Amino acid sequence: MTVANRIETGTKINVNQLNLYYGENHALHNIDLSIEQNTIAALIGPSGCGKSTFLRTLNRMNDLIENVRINGDIIIDGQNIYDPTTDVVSLRKKVGMVFQRPNPFPMSIYDNIAYGPRIHGIKKKAVLDEIVERSLQQAALWDEVKDRLDKSALGLSGGQQQRLCIARLLAVEPDVLLMDEPTSALDPISTLKVEELTQVLKDKYTIIIVTHNMQQAARISDYTSFFLNGVLVESDKTDKIFTTPSDQRTEDYITGRFG
Amino acid sequence: MTVANRIETGTKINVNQLNLYYGENHALHNIDLSIEQNTIAALIGPSGCGKSTFLRTLNRMNDLIENVRINGDIIIDGQNIYDPTTDVVSLRKKVGMVFQRPNPFPMSIYDNIAYGPRIHGIKKKAVLDEIVERSLQQAALWDEVKDRLDKSALGLSGGQQQRLCIARLLAVEPDVLLMDEPTSALDPISTLKVEELTQVLKDKYTIIIVTHNMQQAARISDYTSFFLNGVLVESDKTDKIFTTPSDQRTEDYITGRFG
Amino acid sequence: MSSYADQLTDSLEQARKEPSKGNRWTRGQHRNDRIMRIIFVGSAILVSVIIFSIIAFVGWQGVKTFSAVSPSEFFFSTDWTPSKDKFGAFPFLYSTMLLTLLSVVMSLPLALAGAVFMAKIAPSWVREILRPATDLFVGIPSVVYGLIGLTVIVPFLAKFNEGFGYGILPAAIILAIMIMPTILSISEDAIRSLPGRLEEASLALGATRWQTIWRVLLPAARPGILTGVILGMGRAIGETMAVFMVIGNSPQMPKSLLSSTTVLTTAVVKDMGNTHYGSTWNNALFLMALVLLLISLLLIIVIRIVAKRSELK
Amino acid sequence: MTSKTTDRIATIFFWATGLIIVLLLAWFLIRILGDGLPMLSWNFITGRPSEVRAGGGVGPQLFNSFYILFLSLLFSLPIGIGAGVYLAIYAKKNQFTDFIRVSVEALASVPSIVFGLFGFLLFVNWMGLKFSILGGSATLALLNLPVLVRVTEVALRSVPESYWEASLALGSTQWQAIRKVLLPAALPSLMTGITLVAGRALGESAILIYTAGLSVSRYLPDFNIFSMGETLSTHLWYVQSEAIVPDAKNIAKGSAALLLLVVLAFNLLIAIPSRMIQKKLSGGK
Amino acid sequence: ACGSKAQTPADTKQGAAPAPAATTPAAQAPAIEGTVTASGSSALLPLVKAAADDFMKKNAKVTINPTAGGSGTGLKNVADGTSDIGSSDIEAGPEYKDKGLVDHIVAVAPFALIVSKDVNVDSLTKQQAADIYTGKITNWKDVGGKDAKIIVVHRPDGSGSRALVKQIVLGGAEFTKDGVTQESSGAVATTVGQTQGSIGYVDTPYLNDTIKAVKFDGVAFSKDAIKDGKYPLYGIEHMYTKGEAKGATKAFLDYIMSADFQGKSVEELKFLPANLLKK
Ligand SMILES: Nc1ncnc2c1ncn2[C@@H]1O[C@H](COP(=O)(O)OP(=O)(O)OP(=O)(O)O)[C@@H](O)[C@H]1O
Ligand SMILES: Nc1ncnc2c1ncn2[C@@H]1O[C@H](COP(=O)(O)OP(=O)(O)OP(=O)(O)O)[C@@H](O)[C@H]1O
Ligand SMILES: [Mg+2]
Ligand SMILES: [Mg+2]
Ligand SMILES: O=P([O-])([O-])[O-]
């Protein structure tokens, strides 16, 4: 499949003139961005440029922080998620998130995966069993943990924990996966596994991934957006960004002049 | 001045067969390294490979951690710093350290700089004044703060704080500066200032700098050492490492295959 | 250029000229360092010495009781009639346990809900009000609690019990309020100190806030909450004056929650002043104090076990 | 019931709890202060108590409350801070440290009545101090001690590790780092902790009845540490239980209100400078 | 200079005696100074406090610290030296035989059975009172009142008043364990005042208008009734010192025994003079 192919499948997310303020701090400036279905979009930029902040606007995780003001529109599947009538809980079910540091709950592996289905009302053991197995398999973790499903998830290695978190997310069947530096706390081998996983998942999901590692962005993403000081400097196909960026600042960054 | 020039000035630090254990965890394996006077040596490697640990053996900051066992020799200016008779306090005066996150004391800017001289017995106001001014000037911070010396240092920006920490260090007149990712918490402009500062300082000091940013290592250092899983994989002139590394792992790392 | 080189050589020379000065200063600092270290260790040891002398002292005095009273009588008999040399302390033990449990049970819902509210729900300005408010509860002297118990709660309860309002119930109400801030603030800390990523993970899966609190946060904070409960229990067990004022103070098994009875602390205050040092009666009071002490120590051990378990996890 | 309704109900429930806690406190305060404030007059606050006739004051008790508090802190602060510093900074993870830590926790869990007995026998009887300000404050110091140790330890631990590292990396001795950086940085939380200790000490009665006595010196102020030292809270206990003055009830109400005001004032008095220091330390941020 | 330092205290001590005499010509004896602590019987406390007030007014350098705690406490404190004076409504028991206590009988303290105001019983016989306090009678209707539960209010075991009730009213029988126990006489009065259907016992100085004293065997408390032996509820109040009283303690005891105090103040305080029964 080529990039062109996928563009035809249509726009999944459309961000218009998004501004975000942490109190006085204007953290995102007039962001315009659209993201296609079944692609991987990478967000890159130096520390503090607003990548995480932007990512978290997409499933309204920033709502949790006090003193955040947001204006502009984010339209996912044709619906403005900042519309007052939007149900945040179902939005988050649809737009799932994987975090920088693996964050399994202090419960068994099974309960971690079953957590999402359970809170959404699934109680039957048989159904849960099936969901757990399927999700773990999708996350390429089933073989490693199938004999210890009732053991605490905190006993897994960092890389396994991260894949567990991905499996946990898949269990609620989201459409969009947001990943905030999902491999930055992992060793090279775990990193590789997670990267491979993203390649498999993009057939079913739309993935937006924040990364510090430019090689990673180049390896796995279809589109790359470069942020600097809260501004979206440039957004384009990944090979374009990494070979012939149109903005000087992008070039400076990817060639390591700063960051 | 070229690198060759400086080698003639002699070896400042000599590390022989250094091993370090955090309890059971063997964190440094048989490190051998020598560092020349008035050069900048960069330590690079993926997260958790032992860069910070190694750096902290050089001024015995690891002594503070429980259950650390160290064997092997570190010889600075001909003296083995792990000799039982070594006075740790004067060693640390001589081998100063700048940390990843700027850590000014919660006192005025003046008191921060004067802290070191004071604990070493200087009480005269005139002398202190002079040291404060000189150190701030050396750290390229004097002009920015000279009118607010009595204000809290915590009111400075991150980059200013980091230069303040460098100034504070210079005030105790060390020989060797250890810097553990001194710019990783800073914005690009502050980073640039600190980088420029290192170039000035290397005329008087021997500098060892840990960095995650390979471009930074390439830009500022004379020698680069690559660590992986507690092993010193390769150590050589910086241009050599970044152009024709002798070890495959080094090459994989600097080309972004992992990390 | 030259001035800079001059300065450098100057300072080097100076250092060479007065090496002893720097050394003397450094030596002095090293000595101070050693002295202070000894002082700190000494203080720490002193704390141990104090607790052990208290245990030894109270224990030594209390155990003498057994030369006149058998342990089985002391711990299991319900007959406390010192004038007839009957020293059955079971009613006191029983009432102590009952009162402690009841006050924790009454306190827990409010304290826990308050902790969750303050840690996760209240906007920061509400928290700014609530935090000092709960601290103030701690600042109210126990005599004042007792006074309120005596003048408000006892008469109120009396209306429902043929005019008799003393007993475990008013004491438990008072204690529940007194220990609420302890349980609340420790639980709040426990909930607040949970890594924010647990909450994020749950919310990002589409859980509501309540589901997150109930299914993730409270279970994860359980060790801390348990610690708070145990410390609250410790406070309830040790409280004296407030309980004394409302519990009725009869040396008998409570027939109901509104029936005059005595707990260990109040048994000790009631008679300690007027029994002669060295008499069996007096020794029995020390033995009760020892029992109190041992219960408190036991609670500490439980806390440590809980803490260790949660560390292992 | 959908999960969203449950969530809404839970939210209402939690807000209600917060409200109940505030109302409960407000009720206590209104009740104590409402009953007591009308009793407070200059004469009541500074006057000598009258033993038989109505109209006495609580001046000496008020003085003793502070005097005993001051002395008990004088005894317990150096040791408490010392042990706290040890635990926060020097203590290695070994059996000795565990032992000290268990001791502190054990001491913290000792019911105050047990301290009272211990102080009574040790200070009042064996050391022959009789019921006295000294005996009372020495015993009270034992009560304060473990809390101070904890407060110090927690305050020091909450100081960022980076200060400690920065100081040592500049070649300071440990003591220099503690004295010049850690203790000053820990001062605000240390002071808050000490306020809590003081509040508790001001309200303590079980201990003092047995060690400081229930009567006051005829002089005001009497700094003699060997004179009897009834405090405001023991006076409250005494007045409500055995006094025969006709206005005992009013004295009790007034004392309760005064006691509460004192604790409040104490909190404010220490909170304000501690906020100021905090502000100064953090550079106004 | 060294010498003078050592002498100073001695000088002032010598000089102290005549000085007050000069300034206050009214004082005949050399000024007494010191602190006297008196603890014990809460029954006697009003008297000790009143005496202390007066005595301190007359002696500017004496502090008297009167506290209660119960008779047992008083005896114990004086025996182990914690107090200078220990007061008690009952004689020191055999355990104090060899402690060298010296007895001073200072007053007669009548006490009364008190009930809360809602109790419509005005008089109790000795038998009725005994049955109530031993727990045989638990309802006011059994002693001629309305149908209401009786709540008995006690003093703790160390109380002299309790011992007297046990001895005079119960004839040595044990109290019921039911009911409320209050630390001191004042607290008993308060509790009875606010608890419906309650009965207690306090010394007459503690009587007030929130409670009602009942007649005992048909006799109400009065000085004459006691003198004539018709009202048996009273205790002999003792003040013990360890060894013969000295200094301020002695002066204070002397003041209490003085004709002035015994003749006037004692009865004003609702006690009776120490020599009432000897006459
Ligand atoms: N909760 C918050 N409150 C206030 N300011 C915040 C908050 N979170 C982030 N910021 C600020 O917003 C800006 C953007 O932060 P953000 O975390 O989005 O950066 P980032 O690009 O993800 O950086 P990193 O690569 O370090 O994760 C920063 O200046 C940061 O200080
Ligand atoms: N105090 C400690 N106690 C035990 N293990 C430690 C401690 N500090 C570091 N380690 C371990 O030692 C190894 C090396 O850590 P170190 O901090 O030196 O890595 P690093 O190269 O500096 O990584 P980073 O780039 O993330 O700073 C890691 O496995 C780490 O977990
Ligand atoms: Mg981020
Ligand atoms: Mg590091
Ligand atoms: O306090 P008493 O007089 O009853 O001993």
UniProtKB/TrEMBL annotation, chains A, B:
Domain ABC transporter: 13-254
PROSITE patterns, A to Z: ABC_TRANSPORTER_1, ABC_TRANSPORTER_2
CDD domains associated with the record: ABC_PstB_phosphate_transporter (cd03260)
Subcellular location: Cell inner membrane
UniProt cross-references to InterPro entries, sorted A to Z: AAA+_ATPase, ABC_transporter-like_ATP-bd, ABC_transporter-like_CS, P-loop_NTPase, PstB-like
One GO MF term: ATP hydrolysis activity
Pfam families: ABC_tran
Function of the molecule: Part of the ABC transporter complex PstSACB involved in phosphate import. Responsible for energy coupling to the transport system.
Name under which the protein is recorded: Phosphate ABC transporter ATP-binding protein
Phylogenetic classification of the source organism: Bacteria, Bacillati, Bacillota, Bacilli, Bacillales
TrEMBL record, chain C:
Polar residues: bias regions: 1-12
Protein's recorded name: Phosphate transport system permease protein
Function: Part of the binding-protein-dependent transport system for phosphate; probably responsible for the translocation of the substrate across the membrane.
Occurrences of domain ABC transmembrane type-1 (ranges): 93-303
Gene3D superfamilies: MetI-like
Keywords: Cell membrane, Membrane, Phosphate transport, Transmembrane, Transmembrane helix, Transport
InterPro entries attached to this UniProt entry: MetI-like, MetI-like_sf, Phosphate_PstC, Phosphate_Transport_Permease
Subcellular location: Cell membrane
Gene Ontology MF, one: phosphate transmembrane transporter activity
Native organism: Paenibacillus cremeus
One Gene Ontology cellular component: plasma membrane
Pfam families: BPD_transp_1 (PF00528)
Record-annotated membrane-spanning stretches: 38-60, 92-116, 136-158, 164-184, 225-247, 284-307
Family: Belongs to the binding-protein-dependent transport system permease family. CysTW subfamily.
CDD domains: TM_PBP2
Keyword Ligase belongs to the record: no
Presence of the UniProt keyword Membrane in the record: yes
GO biological process: phosphate ion transport
Record region (Disordered): 1-27
Topology in the lipid bilayer: Multi-pass membrane protein
Highest taxon of source: Bacteria
Gene: pstC
From TrEMBL, chain D:
Coiled coil: none
Transmembrane intervals: 12-34, 66-90, 102-123, 181-202, 251-272
Pfam family, any one: BPD_transp_1
The keyword Cell membrane is annotated on this UniProt entry: yes
Domain of life: Bacteria
GO-annotated biological processes: phosphate ion transmembrane transport
Gene3D superfamilies, A to Z: MetI-like
Topology with respect to the bilayer: Multi-pass membrane protein
Domain ABC transmembrane type-1 residues, every copy: 62-270
GO cellular component: plasma membrane
Compartments reported by the entry: Cell membrane
Keyword terms of this UniProt record: Cell membrane, Membrane, Transmembrane, Transmembrane helix, Transport
InterPro entries for this protein: MetI-like, MetI-like_sf, Phosphate_PstA
A GO molecular function held by the record: phosphate transmembrane transporter activity
Family per record: Belongs to the binding-protein-dependent transport system permease family. CysTW subfamily.
Name of the protein described by the UniProt record: Phosphate transport system permease protein PstA
Source species: Paenibacillus cremeus
Gene: pstA
